[in-house]
Every structure is written in structure tokens, then in C-alpha cells.
């Protein structure tokens, strides 16, 4: 039998590894949790007063457990050697080279972890796939481990995908809808599942911990993200119909959301979804389907991504069209740069798409986001553009500075603070006619029109 888990190592101190293992450390104070990463500056930040990621509630928990039973380290070998359970929470980005370029998941970091674990372990381990991976990835992981096993050492590989959303990670982790654990249908596999389950059982009701075979677990993660993204693309598709007909997508969403079979969540029409995972995981699902010779399935899920591109481009085009078909040298205020509220994460943020589109049309951007700094904005916008960024992009410390001399406000992120800004004050600083493009449907449009703004939004004609 597996002894009780007493030392956990988490490889990858990112948006998943950091919050997940911090919560485990806070709930299981008898377990020593060490989160390791090859990125030295990220680990230094985890050990400092300013954490590398912003997540509501995270800082308090880190501070209460750090140095007690929670450690952040670059000494990966030591942590791996000592651990009886290892989470692999490294990034699994879309491949940008070779076979499957632009679609398949790049598993090089996962494989590096497997080889490192195999080379340095002197005791048996439960190795847990926390990263999102293609179905059957655990098989490769197992094979690498087993082909390099030292005498007396055994491995059990589990799949334990993470379902947290950024911005609500701590709540999601403290009170998950479910915890999913996949493992082998052997005695050792079941014992390993029980060992991992016992960690979660400290705070998660047992009926919410579900166990499956490994492949179902891996595929459930891709499926969950595909369904969530599909819901957004579905409501966004309807938003285009609303704009053309006079229906209001918020009213449609409310009406369909009251059907208990559909439910009210995830029906917020927007400028399009962003974030590091929806696109990556859908591309991965499309690629897997193609490899399995299921082109109709691949095409079906590809359409969710196509609709998202359509939504982003529709919104960007509308900005230019509404502003008399030219925005050359016009200052435009972008409110929000993160891919959603309550995070500083900008990966695949629709704001990046909108900003690049407007810059290519010759606009000058004044950007404000409460949690994204100017270094990040410039990093995200650099590369493809033909303009000298420092001449055409300013990142402001507050929204009122960002409105000075501007023709239009474009809301890209649904930060709560944007709903309570003094829009009279914003208006007074702007050129006239002054425009608002609310890409998140969060502002009081009637009030803005009364102030004098020309307002455009998603999914309804004003
Ligand atoms: P991230 O980029 O924030 O963090 C990954 C970390 O792993 C990085 O700090 C990187 O330096 C480190 N790393 C990479 N290779 C390493 C190695 N060989 N040894 C040690 N450290 C290494 O990524 P993330 O957002 O935390 O996502 C991680 C995984 O979790 C992905 O597969 C993702 O799909 C999945 N996931 C993410 C979320 C989310 O909300 N971000 C939610 C659920 C699942
Ligand atoms: C998403 C899933 O919600 C998590 O369950 C999953 O674990 C995670 O991906 C992952 O695998 O990485 P996340 O991307 O952090 O989480 O955030 P979401 O709340 O899902 O939002 C994603 C994007 O969709 C954001 O740009 C958001 O603004 C947009 N969105 C969301 C909408 O446009 N409308 C909605 O109704 C909901």
C-alpha cells in the first residue's frame, strides 16, 4: 500500500502550480509542499512580497504558509528526490514548429520532467499530470519513467486535470465543482488514486471527487474547455444576429439561461474569448481528431475558434467604421488589457488583437489596465507591427489620463472599476464627437448617451 502522502513536489510555479499547491499546503498543514521551477526570477518573486501572478486571495494564503510547510525553490532535484507525490504543472503550449505546428500541444516540458524524475528518483513516486495534455499523454509519461527506472523504484502515473479559472482560482480550488482523478485499473493504480484522493478529501466532499480511467480523465479536461468555449462562441454568433435585427443578446441570454437544461452561466457575449487555454486546447482537440481520421469532428470544433476570430474582427472593424472609416493619428483609449477581470494575465487577450488592429489602421493608443504594467503591454504588442511602438502607445496609470485628447474609449476587459468611473470627467477630456465601444457590455449605456457619447456595444443596436 502507498503510505500517506507527506511530501509533495510541484514542478511548474505558474498560474496552476502556484495557486493549486498553495491551497493544498494551507489545507493539509501536515504535508510539506515544495513548488519548483526552472525560472529563477519567478521563484524569487514567489519568495518576495510581490508575487509573480495576481489572483484574489492568493497573497494572504501564500504568506500564511510560506516557510512553514510551503516552499518555493529552484532546487528541482532535491524536491523531486524527497517527494512521494509529484505534480507536473508545466506549460503545454501549442507547437510552433514541425509536425502539428500551430495545433498540436508541445509536450517537451512534460517529457523533460519525466526524464528528470526517472533519472533522479531513488524512491517510488506517484506522478500526477496536472497540466492539460492530449488524450493518452500519460502513456508516454509512463513509458519514459518505466524505461529509465532504477532498481527498487516504482511509478504510478495519474491524471488530475485542473479546472480553476483565473481571477477566481482560490475560490475554485477551495470549493471545486469536482476533482477528477484518472488512473490505472490495477491494484497499484487504485492505491495511488486513493493516496491522491486523501489529500483532497481534507477539504473537498468525497462525492465531488470522481475517479475514472486515465484516458477519460485526460479527455474530460479538453472536453470541458471545448464546451465552455463553444458556449461563448454560440452566444457570440447570436450577438451578430442581434445587431442585425434589433434583438438584444443580453435578453436572449437571460431567456435561454432560465431553462435549467441550459443554465445561466457562461452566456456573456463579448469581444471574444481569450486566455492561455481555450484556443490551445481546442486546437489540440482539432489536431487529435484529425490524427484519428475524424475530419468532421475536427471541423466541428474548429468552427468554435473561427467564430471567435469573427467576433474579434467584427468588433475591431466596427470601431473603424463608426469613426468615419478612418482612425489614422486618432488617439483611442483602451480600457483593460487582461484577458478577463481580476487577473494580470494577457495571454491570448482579445485586447491584443484589438490593439494591433487599431495600430495597423494608424491609431495612437492610450492604454489603462489596473493589473497589467507597461512592460507587459509592450511585450505583447511587439513583433508583428510595422509601427514604432513607443511613439504610438502610452500606458497610463489611471483611466482619466488615458482619456486625454482621445476620440474613443474601447472597453476590452470587464473590470468592475470601469463601471463606476466618472464618465462626465472622461468625456470632458476627450475630443468630440466622443465614442464608447463597450466590448464587454458592462457600462450603463443610457447614462453614457445622456452625457453625449456615441455608444456602440456587442449584440444590440443602441
Ligand atoms: P505557466 O506558463 O504559468 O507555468 C508553467 C511553469 O512551468 C513556468 O513557470 C515554467 O517556467 C515552468 N516549467 C516549464 N518547464 C519546466 C521544467 N522542465 N522544469 C521546471 N519548471 C518548468 O502555465 P500555467 O498557466 O500554469 O499552465 C500550466 C498547465 O496547466 C498547462 O498545461 C495549462 O493548459 C494547464 N491549465 C492552466 C489553467 C490556467 O488557468 N492558466 C487552468 C487549468 C489548466
Ligand atoms: C478556463 C476555464 O473556465 C477553466 O475551467 C479552465 O480550467 C481554464 O480555462 C484552463 O484550462 O486554463 P480561464 O481561461 O482562466 O478558465 O477563464 P474563463 O473564465 O473561462 O474565461 C475565458 C475567456 O472567456 C475570457 O476571455 C472571458 O472574458 C471569456 N468569457 C467567459 C466570455 O467572453 N463570456 C463568458 O460568458 C465567459
TrEMBL record:
Its EC number is 1.1.1.22. Residues 333-445 form the UDP-glucose/GDP-mannose dehydrogenase C-terminal domain. Keywords: NAD, Oxidoreductase. NAD(+) binds at residues 12-17, 37, 42, 90-94, 131-132, 166, 277-280, 347. This is UDP-glucose 6-dehydrogenase. Pathway: Nucleotide-sugar biosynthesis; UDP-alpha-D-glucuronate biosynthesis; UDP-alpha-D-glucuronate from UDP-alpha-D-glucose: step 1/1. The active site is at residue 277. One of its GO terms (cellular component) is nucleus. One of its GO terms (biological process) is tRNA processing. Belongs to the UDP-glucose/GDP-mannose dehydrogenase family. GO terms for molecular function: endonuclease activity; hydrolase activity; metal ion binding; NAD binding; UDP-glucose 6-dehydrogenase activity. It comes from Artemia franciscana (Brine shrimp). It catalyses: UDP-alpha-D-glucose + 2 NAD(+) + H2O = UDP-alpha-D-glucuronate + 2 NADH + 3 H(+). It is an enzyme of class 1 (oxidoreductase).
Amino acid at each position: 500500500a502507498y503510505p500517506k502522502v507527506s511530501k509533495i513536489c510541484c514542478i511548474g510555479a505558474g498560474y496552476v502550480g502556484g495557486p493549486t499547491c498553495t491551497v493544498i499546503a494551507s489545507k493539509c498543514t501536515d504535508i510539506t509542499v515544495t513548488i519548483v521551477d526552472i525560472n529563477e526570477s519567478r521563484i524569487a518573486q514567489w519568495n518576495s512580497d510581490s508575487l509573480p501572478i495576481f489572483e484574489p486571495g492568493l497573497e494572504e494564503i501564500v504568506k500564511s504558509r510560506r516557510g512553514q510547510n510551503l516552499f518555493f525553490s529552484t532546487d528541482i532535484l532535491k524536491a523531486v528526490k524527497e517527494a512521494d507525490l509529484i505534480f507536473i504543472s508545466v506549460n503545454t503550449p501549442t507547437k510552433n514548429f514541425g509536425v502539428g505546428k500551430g495545433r498540436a500541444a508541445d509536450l517537451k516540458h512534460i517529457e523533460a520532467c519525466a526524464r528528470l524524475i526517472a533519472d533522479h528518483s531513488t524512491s517510488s513516486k506517484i506522478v500526477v499530470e496536472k497540466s492539460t495534455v492530449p488524450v493518452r499523454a500519460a502513456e508516454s509519461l509512463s513509458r519514459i519513467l518505466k524505461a529509465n527506472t532504477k532498481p527498487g523504484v516504482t511509478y504510478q502515473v495519474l491524471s488530475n486535470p485542473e479546472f480553476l479559472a483565473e481571477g477566481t482560482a482560490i475560490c475554485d480550488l477551495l470549493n471545486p465543482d469536482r476533482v477528477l482523478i484518472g488512473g490505472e485499473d490495477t491494484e497499484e493504480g487504485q492505491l495511488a488514486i486513493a493516496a491522491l484522493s486523501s489529500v483532497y478529501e481534507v477539504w473537498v466532499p468525497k462525492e465531488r471527487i470522481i475517479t475514472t480511467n486515465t484516458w477519460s480523465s485526460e479527455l474530460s479536461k479538453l472536453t470541458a474547455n471545448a464546451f465552455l468555449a463553444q458556449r461563448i462562441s454560440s452566444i457570440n454568433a447570436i450577438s451578430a444576429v442581434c445587431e442585425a435585427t434589433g434583438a438584444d443578446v443580453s435578453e436572449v441570454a437571460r431567456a435561454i439561461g432560465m431553462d435549467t437544461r441550459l443554465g445561466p452561466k457562461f452566456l456573456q457575449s463579448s469581444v471574444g474569448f481569450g486566455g492561455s487555454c481555450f484556443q490551445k486546447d481546442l486546437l489540440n482537440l482539432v489536431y487529435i481528431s484529425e490524427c484519428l481520421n475524424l475530419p468532421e469532428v475536427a471541423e466541428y470544433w474548429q468552427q468554435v475558434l473561427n467564430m471567435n476570430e469573427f467576433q474579434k474582427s467584427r468588433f475591431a472593424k466596427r470601431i473603424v467604421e463608426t469613426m468615419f472609416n478612418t482612425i489614422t493619428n486618432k488617439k483611442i483609449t483602451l480600457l483593460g488589457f487582461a484577458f478577463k477581470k481580476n487577473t494580470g494575465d494577457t495571454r491570448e487577450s482579445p485586447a491584443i488583437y484589438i490593439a494591433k488592429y487599431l495600430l495597423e489602421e494608424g491609431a495612437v493608443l492610450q492604454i489603462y489596465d489596473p493589473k497589467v504594467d507597461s512592460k507587459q503591454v509592450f511585450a505583447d504588442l511587439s513583433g508583428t507591427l510595422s509601427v514604432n511602438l513607443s511613439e504610438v502607445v502610452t500606458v497610463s496609470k489611471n483611466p482619466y489620463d488615458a482619456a486625454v485628447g482621445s476620440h474613443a474609449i474601447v472597453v476590452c476587459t470587464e473590470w468592475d472599476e470601469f463601471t463606476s468611473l466618472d464618465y462626465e470627467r472622461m468625456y470632458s477630456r476627450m475630443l468630440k464627437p466622443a465614442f464608447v465601444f463597450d466590448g464587454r457590455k458592462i457600462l450603463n449605456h443610457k447614462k453614457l448617451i445622456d452625457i453625449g457619447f456615441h455608444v456602440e456595444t456587442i449584440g444590440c443596436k443602441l
